[in-house]
Amino acid sequence: MNALRNHCLIFICLIASVNCFAQDDTLKQVVVTTTITPAPSYKLIKVENIESHATGNLADLLSKQTPIYIKSSGPGGLSTISIRGAGASHTQLYWNGISINSPTLGHLDLATLPVVFIDDSEIHLGASSVVDGSGGLGGAIQLNTSANYKNKLNATFRKELGSFGIDKTLFSINVGNKKFQSKTSLFRSSSFNDFKYIDIAQENNPISERENAEIIQYGIKQEFYFTPNKENYFAVKSNYLDSYRQISSALGIETKGEHQTDKALRLMGEWRHGKKKTFQHLRVAFIKDELNYIDTSLAINSLISVDSYKASYNFNHYFNYLLKISAQVNAGTDIANSTGIGAQQQRNRQSMFVQFEQKSNWGYQYNIAARQEVINGKLTPVIPTIGVKYFLTKNHHFAINANAARNYKAPSFNELYWNPGGNPNLLPEIGFTAEMGLTYKYRKLTFGVSPYYSLIDNWIQWLPQESGIWTPINVKQVENKGVEIDIKKVFNISNKAKLHLHSGYNYVNSINKTSILTSDNSIGRQLIYVPKHTFNIVMKLEFEKWSIAYNQTITGKVFIDATNTTYMPYYAPADFSISYSLKKDMKSTDIGVKISNLYNEDYQIMANRPMPGRWFLLFLKVNLNATNE
Amino acid sequence: MQQMSKSSSYIFIVFVLGFTSCKKQEIGPQCPTCVDENITVQYNDVLIGCEGNFGWGNGSISLYNPTNTSITNTVFQNINGYAIGDVLQSITEYNGKLFVVVNNSGNIEILDTATYQKTATINGLTSPRYFCGINNSKAYVSDLFSNQIAIVDLGSNSVIGNIITGGWTEEMLLVNDKVYVCRPDTNFILQINASTNIIEDTIVVGKGPSSLVLDNNNSLWTLSSGGINEVQGELNQIDPSTNNITQTMVFGDISNSPNNLKISPDGETMYYLNNGVNKLSIYSSSLPSSSIINQNGAVFYGLGISPTNDIYVSDAVDYVQSGIVYRYDSTASLVHQFSVGIIPQGFWFK
Predict the structure, then answer these.
(1) What is the distance in angstroms between the Cα of A102 and the nearest Cα belonging to chain B?
(2) Contact, B243 vs B220, CB < 8 A?
(3) Residues of A in Cβ contact (< 8 Å) with B320
């Protein structure tokens, strides 16, 4: 009986956390996946249906597939994320474990991250982000790529044509054998975005056409994977994006032809080594980011260029299958040149992380971890985290978990050095977060509910000083309380038909608790652009060669002033798509149509930034696939 | 199995139908507490120009009546059916009309002072700041980025020409067919001939002049901030008949950024902001040593002196919440404080 339990635990460990190694029997080869990931007591969201969003950007993907709030200025426009009421720069993004948030801005514009660059994504909410690095006061998003060693040849051509000039082309080719894999993707995506909208900023609210909103993006991804033997894995990963965007104005402002180019190069070398009970993982990366904003009428030509060099070494050791220790050492340098900050700025960061995980033979597991970072030679506060998971029933269907962490976020280059106004005396924003969770997993039903509490101190806000210069200051203390509910079920309607259902609901009460300002009337009120309620549901019906998908999101109203007198109304756009798949031998062809904003809702996410009404997309996908089996 | 299939389809259909039936009318920013169908215009109204946040299109006008202390926010939208635009910079009365300069929208909305109804719009401006009426047919509009002053024809309400200024121009004042213009990124005041539109003189004052007033002895006063910790701020007195500086008062602390020079209705007393509200007589030869109204940790943003010598001062708090206006009487004791729109900045007294 005990043996069976142990077996069960190993199994749970395998499915619950990727940090266990997976053995592929068919290949008789260990694919070493030794990245340190959060222990099972933490809350993770696995982002689904990534492949079907391959021609989109990360903002599109997350806003449809999760109930997380994405603040977007329009299709393809600046898009930022708010997790659990925290700000855009409080979500840290990691590409294969390497931080890719802009060191100058603090956040990453999700519209500049094409989904084709990633194979899988996991959202680490609250405390779990400490495992990835510091600064994820709301959470962290892992964007990973991987190879399938069964693949011999997989070539895909994808074309999409749609309303307001959407034209997307994607070509991918993956070739290799059991030891070597190469993955290549090339894409071009463009759109005029000249959709019609109700112009509320004009007398009598006429129907107008959006101006200066064109987008053209080119991208390439190239990755090589090499696994010479059971113990070693090497990879070289790279991607490059060249994006041109016109910046459409808020309603009531005549367009001045503002536009922005973003160029991002990401390069990484990776080595993983696994032997017996010890696994090591080394990554070195170079990231080059260039952002150029041009407004000729106002003579603005702002250029930000950042070079980042990063290295990360992970070490995992299993004393036995119940006890594991992990350690991580990171080092990195960011060198920024920006017209906004004047002189070149450099920041060196080193950090060390240690995690200890233990599981009992029967039903609980716990973990303790801590991270210590050094920024430009100065020790930052230690950020510890602790978590525990307990199975309530013997069959392991019901589990309860709890965890807590302290975290902090160092100010961005702009906050420190912007000229004029940068504040070199800014304190880091300090976070504390605690959460609980109840999960139920049985067969094809997964249900989870997790209430959480978090406090962010020294919240940074830009305020003008006596001189009229805007300066970032540690102004507020923000308290976030909320609950997240997630339900997922697969219905096998018949052996030919399957219905996938995945739905999430988030509630967040995010309030300003204290302020250094006199007569601040925002105390006790909801933060601006933080919806209390967000909901999403993804339904996918697969029936023989047909696939029908329905996606509904509902985002509750958001206040746009801190005293909560003005708000943006709720919006609930739905998407519907239907596709037909024709398979013949190694070749498959999919054709389909997608209707976005099905009910033709007139809405804005950000004030005076209209979103398109109902729009259409036709897509064609041709795939050639051969495996090594 | 068949049963299962049916129930699943039902779930699907119910969801789809459930959402199709959700129809709503609200589009864009909403402010239920701002809505007021019956705005009554009174003889002693105060209009407060609220900038709103750059790029958000939430500039607004708040209406305050000092007699019954009533406040109505977003007055322009309530009366005209749409928001006034992005970054409301200034409100100037000329020939019985209000010229509301909306900086980032690049236009000027012209309102009737009797009804606050829009009568016309002047479009085609780059980054307009202030309006200065010259005569029944002509006005100047200063600009932050266009490096020129726009000449507006008040008959057609359109831009008919420009005066090259080489940089940022701010407040303007017409004195005897001469227009004096602040050049805040320099240390001079331009003097333009209002008939020929030609710059005739450049008067050197303190660094960063942005506001100017005319006293009842026909002397011009201009206040310079001193830049951002560059030099000390200055208050300069100019004789408009000669364009000579007749008096200069220098602020003691380089970190001071005095701004918002205003004058009392009788033209005898000047007010400005500098770590609070400060007051001095036009006959004074030195700056006051202390403020008459302390800002107590706040940063005062706008200043206005009413026809009854009440002092109105605004606090934008954190710049994303309803701003606060404090009304003091002439002895600097607080009469009333009230909430207005986002970033209250300018006052117009009917």
Answers:
(1) 22
(2) no
(3) 522, 528, 561-562
